[in-house]
Amino acid sequence: MSDVETGVPPESPPASTIGTAESKRTNRAKRAHRAGSDLPFLALMGALGGGYLLLILALLAADIAYTSPAHFVAALSKPEIRFAVRLTLISCTISALLSIWVATPLGYLLSRFQFRGRWLIDTALDVPVVLPPLVIGLSLLILFHLPIAGGKLDDWFQQTLGFRVTFRQPAVILAQFAVACAFAVQTMRVTFDQIDPRAEQVALTLGCRRSQAFLQVVLPQAWRGLIAAFTIAWARSLGEFGPILVFAGATRMRTEVLSTTVFLELSVGRLEAAVAVSLMMVMAAMAVLGIVRLLGARVN
Amino acid sequence: MAPARPTIRFLLGDAPDDLHRPRHRRYGQRRGASSWPVLVVIATLVILGLLIASLVERPSSPVANQTGASSAEQSLMIYCAASNREVMEAVRADYEQDFGIPVQVQYGASQTLLASLEVSKSGDLYLPADDSFLGRARERDLIDDDFALADMKAVVAVPKGNPKQIAKLDDLLRDKIRVAQGSSEATAIGKVTKAALEATGKWEALEQHTAVFKTTVNEVANDVKLGAVDAGIVYGPVLHDYDTLEGLSISELASIQSRVAVALLKSSTRPQAAVRFARYLSAQDKGLVRYREFGFDPVEGDPWSEQPELTLYAGSMLRPAIEETITEFERREGVKVTRVYNGCGILVAQMKAGEVPDAYFACDVEFMNQVQDIFPSPESVSQNELVILVEKGNPHGIKSLKDLSHPGLRVGIGHEKQCAMGWITQRTFTESGLQTELMKNVVVQTPTGDMLVNQMRSGSLDAAVAYLSNAAGAAEFLDAIRIQGIPCSVATQPYGVAAGSNHRQLAERLLRAIRTQSSKEKFTSEGFRWLEGQRSADE
User: Fold this and answer.
1) Residue at A44 is within a domain
2) DSSP string, B75-105
3) Nearest neighbour of A90 by CB, restricted to B21, B22, B54
4) Which of A201, A202, B27, B198 is 20 to 30 Å from the Cα of A269, by its Cα?
5) Would you say residue B10 lies in a domain?
6) How far is A8 from chain B (nearest CA, A)?
7) Domain total for chain B?
8) Domain check: are B482 and B408 in the same one?
9) Sequential pLDDT tens for chain B (539 residues)
10) Best residue in A94, A146, A168 for a mutation probing chain B (most B CBs within 10 Å)
């Protein structure tokens, strides 16, 4: 969530208040014992935070120790795993982009407008976050096969749009999107909450339409929030596994993504391969998220 | 006042052009495109479109391509337990190579797969890790028939070399031994272990001592592999992929085993192709070779044959009850069933002469007993009752067997040597103590009951002793009078599979097809009494 907080413009008022409080304290500190007094405090903070970082690094190190380059090569040489890598990257990006497209308007509306029954929408938006992922998959499956008005949604897709959803690639994306979008919405909402509506109002009084004010004034300020929402949605999609297994299945060369590959490898006891694929996921995630963050920083 | 400041700065700093915009808001705005947020918005749409497009060309994936056109729709869809993945991949590769027919397999936990196929009502075959899941699927009316594949025995998984020297169940209870097991609710291995050990009174101690219960059998093996526990109870074949583990067979677990079977789903839109693959998978010289390779104990399967031919000998009286079911079975299985209907005595004589069919559906137990060495474990399917058939309205006022001895009556019965009906008729006559009187009036003895019915209808007989089922088709013209108080007037029809048959599994499946609900309805409408499944010795 740190990204969201940095979505606040640099010179926002709370920051300056903290600044003055700090300066007061340092003044007093200067009188008591001149230097080094901050050290224990910072050390404690560092130790607490660093402990977690250490844990992550230790996990990665353990994974690396458990597998070997040979396992990597073996995994990557399999066409089904290469397929899974490709499908994973594409489906995650699609669902993250879709999430942004939905989360931005939703977050904006929820942040800017007060209306009755809003709590209901808020609660509904929390459902995908609190529900066990497996249940979301099952619900999707039920939805697409429930006889509605004499037909099923899945058949309708087949007849009208020419493709099936269940157990096909659209199901992978939909399953990822269903969960990831909720996280993106939360992020975007906090982002818009933290952007002062004043500027937007000023733009409106200067003659902007709301759409112009949104595009010209609000969106540029929400840029980092957008990046954060994208990364969260992307990362959620990457790790998504329960709903995909139920709704899209784990059919080789069709709906197998990396997270299901890990499950499949694990379920036949090939821990080394499972770990190799997991590390591949970590690298893919770091690469994509790194690029996105870098891009975000540059544009900003 | 303060909040506005940063935003204005932002506008000034980042987008100086925009500062002038609001003044002439109507102009220059629409086509300007100089504002980057709009560009970004458009860019995301373009990327989205490109990515989706890249997936759309995907359906012709490498595997499907090998075999050509529109295979995605034609290929089979199998739900397979993740624990069977290795062997399934091997068989699938064989099958695709042999026939060029692509097979799509969806792997997952047996329970998860069951849930998704129940909801989606799609797919062709279901192969769970244990046949208890098939029971559940059957309860929900999801599957048609199943094909037994192999057995898995329970073993104790330990690191290679058995460093903790485990040899019997009590060793698992030692203080320093940590044990993992599959959950007795969620996993098949857990369920069968609990049942077996409860019977011997050892369960409680082991349950107390078990360090962890896992939700899949592979997780148990994984724990042993990682050294998180010292031993775990798993299925033997599971360890095939674990180089660093070995499975110990200990006597207390010897009785524990599960059966792997693949079932045809009712939702299948191409049952013939699905059954063909299931037959391939369960063929002793095809799929089961792989199963043995991967550490399973395969069942005794039929040898593979493109279109197997099954020979069935059946008593003529059974024809109306089974004919339709067999035709349906032929269509579903893609096999040919050669039926030989005749009086059972004649059929037995043929078999004794050396012409042995794959299966034999006898008119009465007596005629099965005569060929018991060929059909070791027959199963009783139905019963039939001997009745007196008379013309509609019963013009001769016949009420019992005794009335058939009235002088001048023309009576027809079955031939005692040629058919079970005749044999039972003779026995019934003897039991009634009226045999000589009755036989005086017998003008004809036929090898089948149908002939008697025809003769009744043509008016050449006044009465006939035949099966109730014989009269079922002629209820408009004939009345049936029950023979009271003589228990042997009831015939029981057993179905047996020849021990030496090359198509034993197929013949067993035919029996199961005959035992289905729709078949039962045909039997009862033909006047048979239905006997609920009583599996004898073989299972």
Assistant:
1) no
2) SEEEEEEGGGHHHHHHHHHHHHHHH---EEE
3) B54
4) B198
5) no
6) 10
7) 3
8) yes
9) 344 444 433 333 344 444 444 444 444 444 444 467 788 888 888 988 988 888 875 444 444 333 333 444 567 889 998 778 889 999 999 998 888 888 888 887 787 788 888 888 888 999 998 888 888 888 888 998 889 999 988 999 999 999 999 999 999 999 889 899 988 877 788 888 998 999 989 999 999 889 888 878 888 888 898 888 899 999 988 888 888 999 999 988 888 888 899 999 998 888 888 999 999 999 999 999 999 998 898 988 889 988 889 999 998 888 888 999 999 999 888 889 999 888 888 889 889 888 889 999 998 888 899 998 999 889 999 988 888 999 888 888 888 888 888 888 899 998 888 777 888 888 888 888 888 888 888 888 888 888 888 888 888 889 999 888 888 778 888 888 888 777 777 888 999 999 888 888 899 889 989 988 889 888 888 888 888 764 433 33
10) A94
Q: Is residue A290 included in any domain, yes or no?
A: yes
pTM comes to 0.68
- Domain membership flag for residue A54: no
- Whether A97 sits inside 8 A of B44 (CB atoms) is yes
Q: Which residues contact B453 (CB under 8 A, 6 or more apart)?
A: B389, B464, B466, B470, B471, B473, B474, B478
Minimum Cα–Cα distance from B56: chain A residue:
A169
| Residue B83 to residue A267, Cβ atoms within 8 A | yes
B492 touches A: beta carbon within 8 Å = no
Minimum Cα–Cα distance from B13: chain A residue: A300
C-alpha to C-alpha distance for B184 and B197, rounded to whole angstroms: 12
Decide if A94 and B48 are in contact by the 8 Å CB cutoff.
yes
User: In this structure, is residue A152 part of a structural domain?
Assistant: yes
Find chain A residues with C-beta within 8 A of B52's C-beta.
94
Range of the domain at B269: 71-148+260-298
**Does the beta-carbon distance from A12 to B15 stay under 8 Å?**
no
Give the residue from B382, B386, B387 showing the smallest Cα distance to B361: B382
Tokens 């100086």 found at = B16
Return d(Cα B294, Cα B87) in angstroms, integer: 6
Q: DSSP 3-state assignment of B388?
A: strand
Confirm whether the ipTM is greater than 0.90.
no
Domain identity same for B449 and B462: yes
